Structure formats: structure tokens, C-alpha cells
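Hey L., structure's done. Input below.
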Amino acid sequence: MQLDKLLSNDTAKGFALGVGVVILVPLIATALAPVLKPAIRSAAKAGLKAYEKAREAVDEVNEVVEDLVAEAQAELREEQMAAAEGVPPADEAYAEGAQDAAGVRGDETVTH
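Output:
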């Protein structure tokens, strides 16, 4: 009868369950180790391969972004140097050259 009283207490039930888990988990883990070890090793290998692929992809994206930033910085430096010298930036100079070739310059028409 005392066992009935003891098991009616929630704390005692939790304690008994904890003790059972502590005893059974190592036994079950030892029994399943030969089966689980290859599966865990395969999962670890797959995870490492996925990590390497993701790292390569991130490296490629970083390289592209670095190239774009370097190109943008170079263009900004060119524009700043051109502005300091009073020369229009390359894009504007190209546009003016295209207008000259078409015979148009600003508001006036160039006749040949």
C-alpha cells in the first residue's frame, strides 16, 4: 500500500521516471551503437559536404561583390578626378561624343 501512496505523488513519479531513464538510456545506446554508428557517420559526412559546397558558394558570391565594389570605387575616383579637372565624367563624354557624331550639340544643330 505504501507503493500506491508513493506513486500517487507527482514528484515521486517524476523521480522514478528519471531514474529509469538514467538506467535504460546507456543500455539502449550500447545495444544500438553498432547500428547507429554508420548512420551517424554518413550523416556527418553529408553535413560536411553540404558545408563545403555552401562555403564555396559564399566565397564565389563574395568575390563577385568585391569585384563590383572595386569597379564602383574606381568609377567614383574617375568621376571625382574628372570633376576636379573640369572634364565631364566618362559617361557624359561618351554621350556628348554620340551627339556630336549625330550632328547635334546642346541646343544648336551642327551642319557639315
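Residues 10-85 form the longest helix (76 residues). Residues 2-98 form one domain.

-- N.
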